[in-house]
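Q: Hi! First time doing this. I have a protein sequence and I read that you can turn it into a structure. Is that right? Here it is:
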Amino acid sequence: MARAEQVLVLEPQHELKFRGPFTDVVTATLKLTNPTDRNVCFKVKTTAPRRYCVRPNSGVIDAGSSINVSVMLQPFDYDPNEKSKHKFMVQSLLAPFDMTDMEGVWKEAKPEELMDSKLRCTFEMPLENDKTHESESNKPVSSSASVKTEHSVLPKSASASLDDGEVKKIMEECKRLQMEVQRLREENIKIREDDGLRKRKVTSAAAPHAASSMTASAMRDEGLSTRVLALCVLFFVIGVIIGKLAL
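A: Yes, that's right. Below is the predicted 3D structure, encoded as structure tokens:
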């Protein structure tokens, strides 16, 4: 007895296309639509189960609904002279109204109740022109026109540019920090000069006192150096922020 005609609508109907490169997993989507007023059980089988991962590979499609099946081709060494012999089969049957165990339904199904559709697999490598176009499309856009477009699309985003008043405040703060750093540098140089003068005037009888003075001076130098370093780091961070805003 001939099998019943497939009630599911497959998209694509006859061929699954996988587009390279095949150095990573390549996924093709198979859409299954149930146009009937009955729930339909389905299974997806392949002649090369080790080469593909199918999710979901079985299930129930409610009446009037559809489901997308992801067919994932595992990485392999592509040979353009080798034709693919891989095939897929979508098997289906009308679900009983009182179905509780789908596996039991498949085991008890009669051959004339089963419906199936077959699809072949094809592998395609992108042309050189397509590769060039894709690589150019993936390059970061740095032109002023592109920046203007981006700002026009996202005028209220968190990365939107600051207004003129806020930029002016930041610039004034940067100038103040720069002056503070310069003042600290001059103060540090002056302290070093004063310490050198005092060291030259110290006699051998006052050696312990000189040692304590040198220790205190070193501590002051270290404190000043730490402050200068902290201010320089803050100034650098603010400069980076302004640079990004200017771009």
